[in-house]
Design a protein that fits this description.
By secondary structure, the chain is α+β, with helices and mostly antiparallel strands. Helix 6 (189-202) runs parallel beside helix 9 and helix 15 (451-470) packs antiparallel against helix 26.
Length: 798
């Protein structure tokens, strides 16, 4: 692409006029007077003719973004292979961030993936292969949807190659260590040790030097740099010692330190890679649930076999006993028992008949099911679940970003400490100054490898997220998990949350003037989409469909529509009273005190006249009381906020053991209540499932939506309960707290490890006649620290 003509595609929100576009051009000319922007075509496209050496696209992007210009960008997640430590992720991140057109790059070592946000008109993923390869890594940019097996084969091949290098390194280094410990004073022994060590460094260990060289070209450094420097210096110093002693005579050498260090580091890498592979295996198993082919029933009522990606919404598919259901849909015909454990966590199979909802990835166990497709492919609940879990595993909490910042400067600081130790020993160490200085240099570099520091956060998050996912708790990102542990107030919605969400109409009290209005009420409530409205529509079926002149859904209140010039309303009684609706039914008075105490009463009106009162009941979830008691036992304040009346709110609150409840609460009231608790310094957890819960869910620090809730609730919530079991709420809080305890333990020991052992490695203990370290001890301790962090995180899995 011509570097003097850089296109940036962007558009303004809404429908921008020519005046809007011209004003924006004037603004850009003021910001960048040396650039010459011009409009090319719609969508609003800008090309900047940039003088040589003045192009700073990131600065322009940031400026335009601050000016509320939405630049069209894309985001992609790609696997990265050959990363050997957390510092490698930082190196890959730096290389990607420096590519023209890349706006942001986040690389995750534990998941071996990179999330890249870029401008598609400036760059493509294929452009990043060469710089990443030069840096010593491999970026997989092929179509992952069609080549997942290929990717997994590459990852497995990488693991096997690491395993082979580890075996060879141990096999060659063990004789070196034995010769160094038992036969050091034997003639020619130093020479033999050098030969075996050379085999380690040039064979399985050569990748340390290759990666260190690549890092040097990129002006960065990582763990491979430390290992290459330490073992390379140890080998060169030992060869020098052999040379000045005549090659044959016994002399102190560090060959065993060089060989053993690389062998132990490779062993630690292999154990770490093996653990990470097992930790993420359950997520891969989810992705393999979908079936490659589907049996579809065509317009001629004939069955045909088609590929999974050819299924469309509205298709009719057939699923035989023993087959996995390939789509989200509703049973069109048939009866069976379906195992939903993988998706919902429900251990018992569920009976399915006509009209029941079925999910992709579940197993049909008995009869033949004919299913109407509601969602297919990437739109299914399973696909969304996989994306959410993957996104959570790839997200970074604020504490991890601080650790990443520290890791970027850690390796250069360590190299500086090691070099200073060498110089001080040479200058002040007397006769053995050079020998002790080289030992200190090597030991500091080895002991300070930042593996444990880099693994502390991601391994804990992998364990916690995996525990949550297996329990049917989907957490959107790591920050949500961090916020969840600090929650002090829990707020529940009533309908569909503390109750089952399957309301039914027990009675409808009609006015004498309501004759002929059943169809109106049925269609009005059906179009509302609210669980209570759908219950009314189902109760009144079948009735003639109605086409509205206008229709409006008012969250938390009800619906209003106009049909043939007449206004109809359905909703809560307070709202109807506010609109001046007469609350007395003509010819059929209803004493609300005689209604079911758990019932919700809604009204139906025509213009200003009340036509009906509908009594709707919804049973309380069996586990509600236990879940509330568990939350109270954890010291949390629990509230019930509902739009229902005082009496049903009181009955549900008392049945669930909730002392604080608020009735007749609109969505605005709920949001205001949450804001008040936050102003008092509380962290709020909101639990809901309906459309009207969206604003409150979005406002709370953490929000939980029930698995069967509305799409809006799912979009607003950070956590989704796949299995609609309220006991999973205290479990989620427990997971968050334990995950963060493990994470803090990991970080504490990783920091303490370096703070304690770097001074000893530099020889400070020897100066004061205290303990000291040699390179072999340092390499073993370094690997042990990384393994201990991983094993500590695995406690979450168990």
């Amino acid at each position: 692409m011509n570097s003097d003509l850089i296109p940036i595609i962007f558009h303004l929100s809404g429908s921008p006029t020519n005046s809007d576009k011209n004003n924006l051009l004037k603004k850009i000319k003021l910001l960048y007077p040396s650039y010459s922007p011009e409009i090319i075509t719609a969508p609003f496209q800008l090309k900047l003719k940039v003088p040589n050496n003045e192009w700073n696209w990131k600065e322009i992007y940031t400026t335009l973004e601050n000016e509320k210009v939405l630049i069209i960008s894309e985001e992609i997640t790609l696997p990265v292979l050959e990363m050997s430590c957390a510092a490698c992720a930082t190196s890959v991140e730096k290389v990607l961030s420096n590519q023209p057109g890349v706006l942001q790059a986040e690389v995750h070592y534990a998941a071996s993936k990179a999330i890249i946000k870029y401008l598609p008109d400036l760059t493509t993923p294929e452009d990043w292969n060469i710089p990443i390869t030069k840096a010593g890594y491999e970026l997989i940019t092929q179509d992952l949807g069609k080549s997942r097996k290929t990717l997994e084969e590459k990852q497995l091949d990488q693991f096997h190659r690491l395993q082979n290098r580890m075996i060879w390194a141990i096999g060659l280094s063990v004789p070196v260590v034995i010769m160094g410990m038992l036969f050091m004073h034997t003639p020619y022994m130093g020479l033999w040790m050098g030969v075996f060590t050379c085999g380690v460094l040039l064979g399985p260990g050569r990748l340390f030097f290759q990666h260190a060289y690549s890092q040097m070209l990129q002006k960065t450094a990582n763990m491979d740099t430390l290992v290459a420097l330490s073992t390379g210096v140890a080998f060169i110093y030992s060869v020098y010692q052999l040379a000045i002693s005549g090659w044959i005579n016994p002399t102190p050498v560090w060959f065993e330190a060089a060989a053993a260090t690389q062998a132990i580091v490779l062993l630690g890498k292999w154990l770490e890679a093996r653990t990470r592979y097992k930790t993420t295996l359950s997520l891969r198993n989810w992705s393999e649930v979908t079936v490659p082919i589907v049996t579809r029933i065509n317009a001629n009522q004939q069955t045909e076999i088609i590929a999974y990606d050819q299924v469309k919404i509205g298709d009719i598919v057939q699923v035989k006993p023993g087959e996995k259901i390939p789509v989200d849909g509703r049973v069109y015909q048939g009866f069976s028992i379906v195992d939903e454990q993988l998706i919902t966590g429900e251990s018992l199979p569920i009976h399915k008949s006509v009209g029941d909802k079925v999910l992709a990835g579940t197993l049909n166990q008995q009869g033949v099911l004919i299913i109407e497709v509601i969602k297919a492919g990437q739109g299914t609940y399973l696909a969304q679940m996989i994306r959410q879990v993957e996104g959570a595993l790839l997200s970074k909490p604020p504490i991890q970003r601080r650790v990443d910042t520290l890791s970027k400067i850690f390796v250069p600081i360590v190299i500086g400490i090691a070099t200073l130790s060498l110089l001080l020993w040479v200058v002040l160490g007397g006769e053995l100054g050079l020998q002790n200085g080289v030992r200190a240099f090597i030991t500091v570099l080895v002991i300070a490898c930042p593996c444990a520091l880099g693994l502390a956060t991601p391994t804990a998050l992998l364990g916690g997220m995996g525990w949550a996912a297996k329990s049917g708790i989907l957490i959107r990102d790591a920050e949500s998990l961090e916020n969840l542990r600090n929650v002090s107030v829990v707020i529940f919605d009533k309908t569909g949350t503390l109750t089952t969400g399957h309301p039914s109409v027990s009675r409808i009290h009609w006015a004498s003037s309501a004759e002929g209005s059943q169809s109106i009420l049925s269609q009005l409530e059906f179009d509302s989409g609210h669980p209570l409205g759908l219950a009314v529509a189902q109760y009144l079926e079948p009735y003639i469909p109605v086409t509205w002149d206008s229709f409006e859904n008012i969250p938390g209140k009800g619906v209003v529509a106009v049909y043939q010039g007449i206004e109809y309303r359905a909703g809560n009684l307070n709202w109807l009273a506010e609109e001046g609706i007469n609350s007395i039914l003509k010819g059929n008075n209803l004493n609300l005190k005689n209604a079911n105490s758990t019932a919700t009463i809604i009204g139906f009106s025509k213009n200003k006249e009340l036509l009906a009162l509908i009594e709707i009941t919804d049973s309380i979830r069996a586990e509600s009381k236990n879940a509330i008691q568990a939350l109270v036992a954890q010291g949390l304040a629990v509230y019930l906020l509902t739009g229902d009346g005082e009496e049903p709110a009181k009955v549900v609150a008392e049945a669930c053991g909730i002392l604080n409840y608020k009735a007749n609460f609109s969505p605005l009231d709920k949001s205001k209540f949450i804001a008040e608790r936050q102003a008092e310094g509380h962290k709020v957890l909101m639990v809901g499932d309906g459309i009207n819960d969206g604003p409150a869910l979005a406002l709370a620090e953490v929000s939980i939506a029930m698995g069967g809730g509305s799409d809006l609730a799912h979009q607003a919530a950070e956590i989704i309960l796949q299995k609609e079991d309220l006991n999973n709420i205290p479990l989620a809080l427990n997971i968050a707290r334990k995950t963060w305890n493990i994470l803090q333990q990991n970080l504490f020991w990783a920091f303490i490890y370096n703070l304690l052992f770097i001074p000893l490695a530099a020889g400070l203990g020897e100066v004061f006649n205290g303990p000291t370290l040699n390179p072999m001890m340092a390499s073993a301790a370094m690997s042990l620290s990384s393994i201990s962090v991983v094993l500590n995180s695995l406690r979450l899995k168990n």
